[in-house]
Specification:
Largest sheet: 7 strands, mixed
Structural class: alpha/beta
Distance between the termini: 24 Å
Order of helices and strands: HEEHEHEHEHHEEHHEEHEHEHEHHHEHE
Length: about 375
């Protein structure tokens, strides 16, 4: 399905699926549907247009991994903004540096508690930047807060959308593939540059994983956005969000086809699986490390391998590698990750679990 930009892609794909089809699952088991997302995207876009956001101006999204991100991002893009999503692991002073450099028209905060904890400097930001903050049922915003709540932004956008349909449609139709869309950040927070809508659409074509995904990567990652969030919207596949805790537990619970992780999460999953296997398998556990080294040597060797070495590797496959994969990575067809260590390369190759590293260049400008 061809499109010049992500908002156009959304307009084409959301009509393919029943409105009540669930797509992004929250940790409590509830999910956002295509109908809900369509409303959020258009209402948020209309909200930002209503506050006089001009095409090409910046919006910063400060959000962890979660179901609302895609709606907020698509709403900002539909309004013509350039979206900046720095890593959620940045310290407050580092986020301040990003805001000072980017000078956004609006800042989206996914946590009201974060606003309350850092209200002093965020209120100073609010003098030149509209802060939109998502709230939970237990939150109690007060009149002195220098924010617009997520629900408030949606309501205002809904009214603007109804009363200014022609202006709204003109803004949507004015988007071009050559327009700037994303500020690109590495996982360490360093700024790479700005990608156009056209470059993003080209990169998205490299992803065609038509299966459910356990999403643990941050939305600051281009892999997470293109390979998981928007890929899922294209194909109507479900995304389950993992925040903290045991990855294997959530794999068993949700039964995803794929997982999307950071390099650190990938390493931690490997280490935990090996340690647990050694603890629960006193005899075969002693041979895990040597077996991984042997499997790597066989994979990389250019000549013939001795029959005895091949035999020991077959034993390891039956009594070590296959049990590890079945126990700690059940049903997973592949793991999407933005880079990985040599140790993880050796381990996941040994248990025959593909690591799906992105084939695009971060320098998309």
């Amino acid at each position: 399905m061809t499109a010049q930009h992500l908002p156009e892609l959304w307009d084409k794909v959301h009509e393919k699926y029943p409105a009540e089809t669930p797509i992004f699952y929250r940790t409590d088991g509830t999910a956002l549907t295509y109908k809900q997302m369509h409303a959020y995207i258009h209402c948020l876009a209309a909200f930002w247009i209503s506050i006089d956001l001009r095409p090409g101006e910046n919006i910063v999204l400060w959000s962890p991994n979660g179901p609302y991100y895609a709606s907020v991002e698509l709403g900002a893009l539909m309004a013509g903004a350039v979206v900046h999503t720095p890593p959620y692991t940045l310290r407050p002073d580092e986020l301040q540096d990003v805001i000072d450099r980017v000078r956004p028209v609006s800042l989206y905060l996914d946590s009201y508690q974060y606003y309350r904890d850092h209200r002093a400097w965020l209120d100073s930001v609010a003098t030149n930047c509209r802060i939109v903050c998502r709230t939970e049922k237990q939150d109690n915003p007060v009149e002195t807060d220098q924010i617009t709540t997520f629900d408030g932004a949606v309501d205002r956008g809904k009214n603007y959308w109804r009363e200014n349909r022609d202006a709204f449609q003109t803004r949507k139709l004015s988007l071009r593939s050559s327009d700037k869309a994303y500020g690109i950040y590495r996982l360490d927070g360093s700024f790479v540059g700005v990608a156009t809508h056209g470059k993003l659409m080209e990169s998205m074509e490299k992803f065609s994983y038509k299966g459910t995904v356990l999403s643990a990567g941050p939305p600051s990652s281009l892999l997470e956005r293109l390979g998981v969030l928007h890929n899922a919207l294209r194909y109507g596949t479900k995304v389950y969000f993992h925040s903290i805790g045991d990855l294997t537990r959530d794999v068993v619970k949700y039964k995803p086809d794929y997982a999307c992780l950071t390099p650190r999460q990938l390493d931690n999953w490997r280490i935990a699986a090996v340690q647990n296997f050694k603890l629960k398998n006193r005899i075969t556990g002693r041979f895990v490390d040597k077996s991984i080294v042997r499997a790597t040597e066989i994979r990389l060797v250019s000549g013939k391998v001795k029959w005895w070495t091949r035999f020991k590797n077959r034993l390891a496959s039956s009594y070590i590698f296959r049990p590890i994969r079945q126990k700690y990575f059940p049903g997973i067809k592949g793991i999407m990750v933005e880079g990985f260590s040599p140790e993880s390369d050796e381990f996941y190759s040994a248990i025959d679990l593909p690591l799906l590293a992105p084939a695009y260049d971060l320098a998309l400008m």
